């Protein structure tokens, strides 16, 4: 029902804005993206890069401006816009600025949400059909598949007419994302770090006998 809006998935939109309004980048950032941070010793050399119009990579000769910090840096969950924020859509934060700088981050953050319409009347649903609405704290450490496995495991352990099954599922998802407290901090079963963000989960039954809203 949704997809993540991250510096990586919205790279071209962000780069286009930086290209059209270079004043937003000041003298500190470049809208171009490189596979890794360009070093001064690479001036004049040919290095892979991509801009707002490219889905693939090409070569360019490194110039002095290319040594600036990239508008988008990092990969996956560690990707950041202007080395500051890991999301690209949101409300508020009008005064958010780059650390040790006067450059505002807000112009790169869109307030327009993605809207998906799901017509419940077009499909038949059973008590195990649910919509999981969760904050970053859940999805930072879980894939869609991980959550689906927990949904199947928890709901199958309850009777279809038991309304507490949905509360139990929400609790299981929250506790699973937090992990177990150990000497090294909160850890998941695979020993990776548990979520350190807010974890809020809503379990929304989509209908069928035994469902509760």
**Could you tell me the number of beta strands?**
10
End-to-end C-alpha gap: 19 Å
Q: What amount of the residues lies in strands?
A: 15-25%
Would you identify the regions where 5 or more consecutive residues have pLDDT less than 50?
A: none
Which percent bin holds the helix content?
10-25%
Structural category is: alpha+beta
Spatially, the strands of the biggest sheet line up as 1-4
Describe it.
It is a single chain. The chain has 213 residues and is an alpha+beta fold. It has four helices and ten strands, in the order αβββββββαααβββ. A two-stranded parallel ribbon has the order 1-4. The longest helix has 15 residues, at 164-178. The radius of gyration is 22 Å and the shape is elongated. The mean pLDDT is 91.
Lay out the secondary structure.
Elements: H1 11-20, E1 29-30, E2 46-49, E3 58-61, E4 69-70, E5 72-73, E6 80-81, E7 130-134, H2 136-139, H3 144-155, H4 164-178, E8 180-182, E9 185-187, E10 201-205
Parallel strand pairs: 1-4
Antiparallel strand pairs: 2-3, 5-6, 7-10, 8-9
Protein name: Protein phosphatase, Mg2+/Mn2+ dependent 1J
Domain PPM-type phosphatase: 1-206
Pfam family, one: PP2C
Task: Sum this structure up briefly.
The protein is α+β, with helices and mostly antiparallel strands. It folds into two domains: 1-116, no CATH class; 130-205, no CATH class.
């Amino acid at each position: 029902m949704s997809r993540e809006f991250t510096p990586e998935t919205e790279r071209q939109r962000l780069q286009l804005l930086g290209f059209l309004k270079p004043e937003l980048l000041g003298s500190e950032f470049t809208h171009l993206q490189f596979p890794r941070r360009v070093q001064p010793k690479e001036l004049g050399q040919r290095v892979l890069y991509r801009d707002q119009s490219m889905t693939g990579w090409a070569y360019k000769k490194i110039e002095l401006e290319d040594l600036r910090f990239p508008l988008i840096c990092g990969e996956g969950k560690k990707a950041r816009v202007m080395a500051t924020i890991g999301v690209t859509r949101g409300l508020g934060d009008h005064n958010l600025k780059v650390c040790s700088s006067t450059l505002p981050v807000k112009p790169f953050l869109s307030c327009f949400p993605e809207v998906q319409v799901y017509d419940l009347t077009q499909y038949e649903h059973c008590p195990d059909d649910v919509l999981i609405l969760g904050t970053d704290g859940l999805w930072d450490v879980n894939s869609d598949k991980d959550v689906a496995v927990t949904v199947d495991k928890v709901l199958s352990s309850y009777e279809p007419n038991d309304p507490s099954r949905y509360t139990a599922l929400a609790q299981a998802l929250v506790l699973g994302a937090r992990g177990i407290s150990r000497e090294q901090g909160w850890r998941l079963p695979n020993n990776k770090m548990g979520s350190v963000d807010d974890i809020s989960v809503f379990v929304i039954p989509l209908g069928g006998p035994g469902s509760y809203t």
